[in-house]
TrEMBL record:
Organism: Vibrio renipiscarius
Residue intervals of the Protein SirB1 N-terminal domain: 34-184
A Pfam family it matches: Transglut_core2
Domain of life of the native organism: Bacteria
Record's protein name: Protein SirB1 N-terminal domain-containing protein
InterPro entries registered for this protein in UniProt: SirB1_N (IPR032698), TPR-like_helical_dom_sf (IPR011990)
Family: Belongs to the UPF0162 family.
């Protein structure tokens, strides 16, 4: 598999980087169709908003178009479905998770000239809208609703505990490699949950292209190899994790796993 690097994503729109990632994981991703569909949506939005002269009202109309007329929505019934993280499936189903819906909305919104950016808030992906001489507004891409700073702090408290404070760093515009890295982790988790191990293996290989020799990623790759009956490679990855992270609680569990697998290997031979 061709490795991907941060600079591959820096020059791309977020949705374009996501497509590169999606296709690297699953070559059957409908990249060409996505590009045509995105352009169609941009043109439809331009026509729908052509008579709206006030930019802020125009943005409100865009939100209604995206979530009500087009019917995009967060997948509340199957949030962790891997389809929610592949752009072609999101456009087909009009369902997704914050980062995938946000990437679509961000692409179309920027084409329409709106001052929007992506934020990797600790709990989920957000969009910021910054009008001149006004405080930034924050949009939850999952449902298109504005989120107050009070709600953002409540999310943060639920995620990190009661003593955490909402800081400006939590609301900074994120670079595309950072967003793509989190997107990759979400896809891998979904594929592992669905036992799609061959595709999940692509995810670990890509992740190791970003951070070579990451012991936790190599541990996960060992698990995938084990599920694919590649026991020798699984043993090697598990042993690497044990050697690099001897004090991690998972290391003791893996030592037992390695011992049991080694005995099985000896028995088979």
């Amino acid at each position: 598999m061709q490795p991907l690097f941060d600079e591959d994503f820096d020059a791309l729109e977020l949705i374009e980087g996501a497509l590169v990632l999606n296709q690297a994981i699953n070559p059957e991703t409908q990249v060409d169709w996505v590009k045509v569909e995105l352009q169609r949506l941009v043109e439809e939005a331009e026509l729908a908003l052509v008579h709206e002269s006030n930019e802020q009202q125009r943005f409100e109309s865009f939100l209604r178009l995206f979530y009500f007329d087009w019917g995009f929505q967060g997948d509340v019934e199957a949030y962790f479905d891997s389809a929610n993280a592949f752009v072609d499936k999101v456009l087909e189903r009009r369902k997704g998770i914050p980062v995938s819906l946000g990437a679509v909305m961000l692409y179309i919104g920027k084409k329409l000239g709106f001052p929007i950016n992506g934020i990797t808030f600790p709990t989920q992906f957000l969009l910021s809208v910054e009008w001149p001489d006004q405080a930034p507004l924050y949009v939850n891409p999952f449902n298109g609703e504005y989120v107050s700073q009070h709600t953002l702090r409540a999310w943060l408290v639920g995620h990190r505990g009661p003593f955490v404070q909402l800081e400006s760093k939590h609301l900074e515009t994120a670079d595309h490699p950072t967003i793509i890295g989190r997107w990759l982790a979400l896809i891998k988790s979904a594929l592992l949950r669905e036992e799609q191990y061959a595709l999940a293996l692509h995810c670990t290989d890509l992740a190791l292209g970003f951070v070579p020799d990451d012991p936790y990623e190599i541990r996960d790759r060992g698990f995938i190899y084990q599920q694919l009956d590649c026991h020798k490679m699984a043993l090697s990855d598990y042993q690497y994790f044990i050697d690099q992270c001897p004090d991690d609680p998972a290391a003791d569990l893996l030592k037992n796993q390695v011992q049991a697998m080694s005995q099985t290997q000896v028995t088979l031979h």
